[in-house]
Structure prediction request, 803 residues.
Amino acid sequence: MVYLGNVVLIAAVLAAIGVLAFFVIRLKSDYYKPDDLKAPYQSLYVLFGLISLATLVLLYGFITNDYNFDYVVKNSSSDMIIWYRMSALWAGHEGSFLFWIWLLSGFTAILAFTRSKTCDKLTSYALGILSGIQLFFLAFLMIATNPFVVNPTNFGIGEGINPLLLHWAMIIHPPTLFIGYAGMTIPFAYAIAALMNRDTSAEWVDRAYKWTLFAWLFLSIGILLGSVWAYVVLGWGGYWGWDPVENASLLPWLGGVALLHSFHIYRQRKSFKHWALSMSVFSFLMVIIAAFITRGGIIQSVHAFERNTTVVGFFVTVIIAIIASSIYLISTRWQIYASEHEFTSLFSRDIMYHFNNIFMVFGATIILIGAFLPLFAGGMSIGPAVYNRIAQPLGIILLFIISICALIPFGKTDMTEFAKRMAAPVGAVVLAAFPLFLYWQSLNKLITDVNPKASPPGAGWLGYVGLLVAAFGVVAVIEAIILKIATRMKASEQGLLSAIVGYFRTQGGAAGGFIAHFGMAVIVAGLVGSTLYTASVKKTIPDKTGATITVADFQLRYKGSKSETSATQEKFRTSFDVLEKSSGKVIGQIAPRMVFHKDKETTTSEVDIVYQPQRDIFVVLRAIDEKGAMNFEIKVNPLISFVWAGSIMLVLGTIIAYWPRRKKSPQNEPG
Amino acid sequence: MEARSRNRLIIVTGIVLVLLAVLLWRSSTGSLSYFKTVTELKAEKGLIGKTVKVGGEVVKGSVKRREDGVDFTISDKKSTIKISYDGTIPSTFGEGIQVIADGKYDKEDLVKADSLVTKCPSKYKSEKIETK
Prediction:
């Protein structure tokens, strides 16, 4: 089977060369007719078929535990259940790269299929570019990270997967991100196609918009899944540690935010054309760099650099080629992509979009500096504290921009109208100012309540400002939705309910946008609580039923423990009632555990969490001494549920915006 | 484009960029740390008292858990150094695991870490766990 994999891979490379040549010849011919392109379009299906076959061969290796595959030996083992074995397909470099190419060729084939009736020029160019990208990736896969390497010893039972990774969120997290990465290639291909044809119409944006939204949606879900996993499994009490791998996934996401907003203005106002082109390139570049960071092996250890010269050489070449050709194309066509609507006022929605884009690019730049600094500056590095210090004020300012944006129009803002619209959010902030002040004080107090030795938070007023801005944002976005629906009711004399339904049905894009931005406001409130005001304390109790741990306003009452032994691990499970200190009411039950993995001789902790709307109580069993005394860490994470709730709104809003609509049905839906 | 409004936009954008740069500068000065191997760190006495990041493998038998943290020794196969860490211990921490400790290079043979990151023994994804 391994040999079959190699044969298919070679066939796929040859096919990709053929497809690319086919497109180039047909598009270059002087007698260009759309019908001539039918055949190249169909050849893309063949390419997709071959890459699918290669992927299936590898999958078959995992299903049948075929240890002739070196890749199977390294990423799977016979004692894993079948679903985990199948998911090991994307567990290493080689397989995940193959999986990514498979997704890319699938998306390309779907795009070819949906446009095969017209074979329009832009799509044909874009498909040609996409086949070129596939060829490049396939060649790289074969040369540098071939998944079909024969196991040299021809012997093995498989090394298995790290036990921490066997979690549902971690199993679907990588493919979700890869869907996003692969999808982000399509706006890039369309941007280059438009540039090559000097096409300044909005057609390329119309074709690429939904794909971009689709890709960005999956990036968001992927990042969210990764955070959930980190929070529930890793046991350090947080969900975002600013490590290079996490940061890498944020890069294309930030690029995508800027790209979607640029596309929006391009379609609506025929402006922001330079932004749209450059952000298409930027987002794709961020995908490549994200892959470079996670898969190139340069970041985790400075010394992996020498070992992966082929990989590094490939990535550096690709990155330089993309930057150089895009700069050439955009700069030589700069004039023809001038905006049709110009900035006339510094206080308009256009300007807010402009600064939103600048913030996104700035954020991505900081992450890039952070990722590559250790390589160039004698091992200097940026820690999570620095990222937090930059991200916290930026997030709050960004939310303020979003909120204002909901209240002002494109072009020129009528100041009296603006003042009227500001009344509700400003009023809400004034009303909420005092209650939020008390709440903010209680957050400050919480830290020393939980742990008397802890130092109070250094953030000062930032947290309070953040809460106020979040309240402002929530009200501003709600007001914007209400205004839209009210206008609709007046215009068509509809009732409230039918106006709401009608609004979502015909203007789902805008409605989804509002929900997503509402989610952003909720996320910021959650971030304020859960990054600035987490409190933690460590306590030791004897192994005696009824022993209690009292922290701030709650109490943990020990109910006993038990050990469970299996062939591979030994699990020590403690259980507690969680009580309200004042009333003695039981508010939850938890069972923090400690697991000893016999084969790897390591211990991992399995945390348990009491979820409350306003905070989480997070308990980790850290250590057990010879006498059986147990040491726990208890962490209180205020407002963390807001992060999850806001993220879900963001995802839902994006889905609503993506959902196909009847009236203006765009014809480029993927899937 | 009206030249006046374009110029105004460029000026405002410039001011915003300068403010962002100032934010970056203020947030990072004094907080950047140097990433070194154990051998490199021990060769640079000048870094004593500075914030450093050092990576290596946890030496077997060296781990001593305390009430507030853990003490252990890490090695890069050539040299070793002691790490004293206060904070939440990542669930993947253990002997033979690759870790990166971030903190003050206190004495010639000791780093007082306030952040400890473990690299999973997985090939799947080199997850790091940050603790603060």
In short: Residues 248 and 290 of chain A are 5 Å apart (CA to CA). The first strand of chain A starts at residue 380 and ends at 381.
